[in-house]
Prior knowledge:
The structure holds 2 protein chains of 2 kinds. By secondary structure, chain A is of the alpha+beta class. Chain A is 30% helix and 24% strand.
Amino acid sequence: MDGMGAALRQDSALRHATGEAGFIDDLPEVPGLLHGALVLSPVAHGRIEALDPAPALALPGVVAVFGPGDAPGRNDISASGAAQEPLFAEHLVEHWGQAMALVVATDRDAALAGAAAITPVIHALPPVLELAEAVAARSLLMPPQVLARGDVVAGMAQAPLTASGSFRCGGQEHFYLEGQIAIATPGEDGDLLVLSSTQHPTEVQHIIARVLGCAQNRITVQCRRMGGAFGGKESNASWVAAAAALAAHATGRPVKLRLTRKADMAATGKRHPFLFRWTAGFDATGRIAALEALLAADGGHSLDMTPGVVFRAITHALNAYDVPALRIEALGCKTNTVSNTAFRGFGGPQGVLLMEEIFRSIAAATGLDVETVRAKNMAGGENGDETPYGQALDGKLIRRVHAEALAASGWVERRAAIAAFNAEHPTLRKGLGSFALAFGISFGVMHMNQAGALVHVYEDGSIRLNHGGTEMGQGLFIKVAQVVASAFGVPVERIRITATSTGEVPNTSPTAASTGSDLNGWAAHLAASAIRERMAGVAAEIWAVEAGEIGFEDGMVRAGGNRQMSFGELAHACIRRRVSLSATGFYKTPDIHWDPVAMRGKPFFYFSYGASVAEVVVDRLTGEHRCLGAWLVQDCGRSLNPAVDRGQIEGAFIQGMGWMTSEELYWDRTGRLRSLGPSTYKIPGSRDVPPVFVTRILEGSPARAETIFRSKAVGEPPLMLATAVWNALCDATGAVSLDLPASPERLLAAIRAGGR
Amino acid sequence: MNLSITLTVNGRERMLALPDPRVTLLDLLRDRLDLTGTKKGCDRGHCGACTILVDGRRTNSCLALAISHDGADILTIEGVAHGDTLDPVQAAFIAHDGFQCGYCTPGQIMSAIGLIREGQAGTDPERVREGMSGNLCRCGAYAGITEAVLEAQRALDAAEQEQAA
């Protein structure tokens, strides 16, 4: 079967395996192409006094140097166009590694040498580097967001027990294997074609037009595929492409800007580190009555998407649990570090940590088991099932998913086996942890929940598909092609998948927030359905039957028992009868709304549920640890493509585990990032995968919301299932509070501080 | 100084002038020979995206100076398939979804071919994970990669047995 639900390989599978799949840096270089290299700030904070391009221009091969004054339009790369986010630092540098200028030269080495030859003169100012310092000084990028419900003061006063704590989690480098890249090629009369490795071609287009001071219709942005993105190419791709575009516009020559790994890690944003402070009131059964919490996000030096990240963190701070009275304040703080940005989960992974840490404290205070406390506070059942912002959770599904994960792991027997193991081993300690997730699906910014598609059927019955979504390895292109193949009743090979282009489908949203197939799948379905309806009308006319009798399947068009022709024959007949076989489809997510002042509404079309169990082993003498087993259950609704979805679940878990364990960004006291490559920044490798790794797609659970073929989004939610690893590490060490990443050093400190 | 080297690349002998003696095999392959299947991930020898076989051994081509490999026999991802027939390792990577974005894939496949030729793949997944640990996959497709290597080894063993019989 080629339509919905088939476990098809992704569209470029063969070309990836043969090395033929072209990434932007693989394309043949045209004669005259210039290469770019960035001049980055050598200090974290300072007033720019001079930037002399002469030493670069004196080098062979260097053609030009561009700085903040060279933008014919505005030196502003913010999404809104209203924030203080310069393409090249102007007057002030606000983080180490900030882009200050672009050198272009006839070859890559000359460009890099030119950039290295420039020494900006900067009057250094004291930087704010610590998140806690920013919180204390109320150094904020945005107004605080507050989510409140019930009477917290009374709830806290009446609670028999209270506990408080604080903890933090670190950031995360995207480490897409394909670094940021764009090639800008000037065309006729000021046109510019830009190949960009971007999740958001439309924003690349808009920002280039703003920087160049031209109409958006002059700029065409294309992206066939990305070598990974994970949120890191949602806003950061825009400024890289804008720098290339500026140089191409000024020199009249094609310009390629590909960041070196080091420059990429220095100059592009990462996942937001968070600081949490909380107080909870509860009773001896572990039931929480009241909660006060502060979530502080480190936004870095500029706004970028911090409001959205903070929104998702605060709306996911209770996760799948219920607390009757609460007040949560969330801050987007400003520090002199790189501007943090979207990263798979977008504040969700940070937000859902809160309740886990609280459960551990309550368990410690009451003597209850963490799992008992978890069950006691799960949304639904005897507890409320409404989020503090007024949207209902499915308490039954939360319980079902969690119970399935526990059962898959053989929780009870495993617990006993671990206890027996720990009793026998003086140095090694095993631990077990679980996790449950309710993750809201939709963009937090309501107007972004829209998508467009363009479908053409040609006279031979072949089909060309284009939509606003981008392919970064998540399998979006094959999923949407399956939707279209299903609409026309043709094999998926009949669908030609094409590069995302602002010239084909305009004004799109980024491929982000897990919404890619939800939005673009619907848009493509609507476009295909419009054409099919016209084709059915022609077939009905030819055969003198009702259009409702016409069926499309197996590449054939049929009516009744014996009337049939091939899809291609019907396409040909449509052209002869002057019927259009091209259509756009447009979709906007229905039934979502949000009041940002009241912090109430239904911001999510639906929730994606998931649960996990992890088993770890920790060496008490070194703090080293390994995840031995992971059992994941993820709700994908009625999966569009189980092979693709399984890959997303496994990969997201591994990436989440990396964030929580081995991936540590290290800034020195002057604000220089010292973890600038894979030698100093440890992303998970093949040996970090748990030897027992069981992933299950929840069965028999089609989405209740009217999603495309009742499927559910899968890109981000499973990343949070790695939270079970954190819980298992706490279980193994006896740590009640454990900052992330849970590096061996931190685990050793936790063990020495009186854990087991 | 007029430097040149001779390499056999995917079975074809190439005489190459080296205007800059610092050029790496990776840049030589990508920039001079248009063999862009081999990827540049970190350019520091840590990610494995640039893995090729040099005289049958797995090598990070970003760290290998071309000039020190005069006369070497080089196999890249472009030379792995036999016409339209995929190498069993390539076929296994497709069958087991051993990739998502595909950027690390050529390096993974070259590393897997090298591992198998070294006789180090075997049937133990722990051993495969160890042997493939020099190749990073940020999408986290390691489960599929490990299965693919095991499957390719099984397929090659079966083919060998068939030949012997």
